[in-house]
Amino acid sequence: QAVAVVLASKGSSQDLSIGSGVFIRRDGILLTAYHVVKGALRVQVQMKNGEVFDKVQLLGFDPRRDVAALKIQASGVSALSFTPIEEIREGSRVYALSHPQGLTWSYSDGVLSAVRLADEVPGAGQGFRLIQFTAPVSPGSSGGVLMDEMGRAIGIIVSQAAGGQNLNFAIPIVNVSGLGDSGPTLTYDTGSGLSLPKPAVPTAEEPKIEIKDPKTLILNSKTIVVDSNTTFFKDDILINELSKRQFIKDLGWVFLEGTYQMIQQADLIIRLDHEIFTFDFTFTIRDRRTSVIIATGKVVIMNGATGAPAMADKIIQRLNAILNPKPPPTKGKKPDAKTKAEEP
Does 124 share its domain with 257? Predict the structure, then answer.
């Protein structure tokens, strides 16, 4: 009961962000990942007992740590107690409770690997502590809770590593619980009408595409979603950079919000990842209709804010190589030295 679903929208119900929230006080104050509600106009909180709250306020928030406090008009809600920071032990068993991929109130377990400064994790930021753990998490887990074996809250889940689900990060909850003491900074528009999306089911009207040729798939694609799997490279930063390029304009691409619903509808999905403990950021371009991997690549950058141009360059380079392949070199006998000498 102490973990809620947080739905946030920047406008219509189609651009939905799904996250988790953890009640830290019985008067309706909960913590979530800041990126879940950043820029949102409408927010809704759903509780496990079926109650839905459409009036939500933003209290304190910490962009550095990616945590925000929300408040709903409720009292007597279940709230978790905290694990003192001095009792956090590396190697101890931990449990994640969140809503991965919209699968509500899902548990996973793992090991608390380390408590380290964000400075030690390339692209994570500076000046705060991170809890590294191995319990699997997925998109939708952001804002969920990491608990010890006694069911006490250890941290707020904020990010996951690329290339696997055993390198994930949470913010120590004792370091951000004070955000709930701030007064309201924003009252969101009513979240009425927001709801968890149902899994997409192919309809009879949707044509089944059998084409496997990457070039043909690119030319037959119009709607694109950028799905970032790392908090160190926001999807909207890459969208803004790609949208400036004439190459992308000539393709006629339309970028959709990277929400669960849009991912199920887009023609192509550009997935961004970050290889943990490195400055390597990768991309994969996949055709949703056929699951064909069209292109992959890697750039070495600090983060998305400064590295978006390099990432866009690499993506366009890969696409151009597919659409305009260079002809193979002509095989033939090389002219000898005498022939060269006779050339004018």
Answer: no
